[in-house]
Amino acid sequence: MKIEIPEPVRHPLTGFLSFIGAVWGVANAEVLLALVKAIFASAPQIFTGVTVGALTFPEFWPPTTLPDWAGVVATGLFGLYLLYKVNQNFDDNGL
């Protein structure tokens, strides 16, 4: 089996790891590690939000009635709450 150089370079994993390496090289490593710790500490809330949102949100999109709009607004507010919790964990565990 002959592997040419452009073949591994075009692999999606290569692009993803290159992006991670570039971000790691440019950004402050301490801040990135603190952000990873904050996201990991919020993992249960994030998992719950993504799961509930993925299972219920498509039923309301595009919203046409008032209850549909209420569901979309509630989903948005819950997403903002999750971002708040990640930020709070970042403040608690971060720098």
- Biggest sheet details: none
- The share of residues in extended strands comes to under 5%
How helix-rich are the residues, as a percent range?
over 70%
How large, in whole angstroms, is the Cα Rg? 19 Å
Write the H/E string, N to C. Answer: HHHHH
Shape: flat
Question: Care to count the β-strands?
Answer: 0
Poorly predicted segments: none
Mean pLDDT: 75
Please describe what this structure looks like.
The chain is an all-alpha fold and 95 residues long. It has a domain at 29-93. The protein contains five helices and no strands. Helix 3 crosses helix 5 (66-93) and helix 4 (43-60) packs antiparallel against helix 5 (66-93). The longest helix has 28 residues, at 66-93. It is flat, with a radius of gyration of 19 Å. The N and C termini lie far apart (50 Å). The model has no long low-confidence stretch (mean pLDDT 75).
Quick recap of the structure?
This protein is mainly alpha-helical and 95 residues long.
Provide key terms for this protein.
95 residues; mainly alpha; 5 helices
Topology:
Blueprint: H1 6-9, H2 12-26, H3 29-41, H4 43-60, H5 66-93
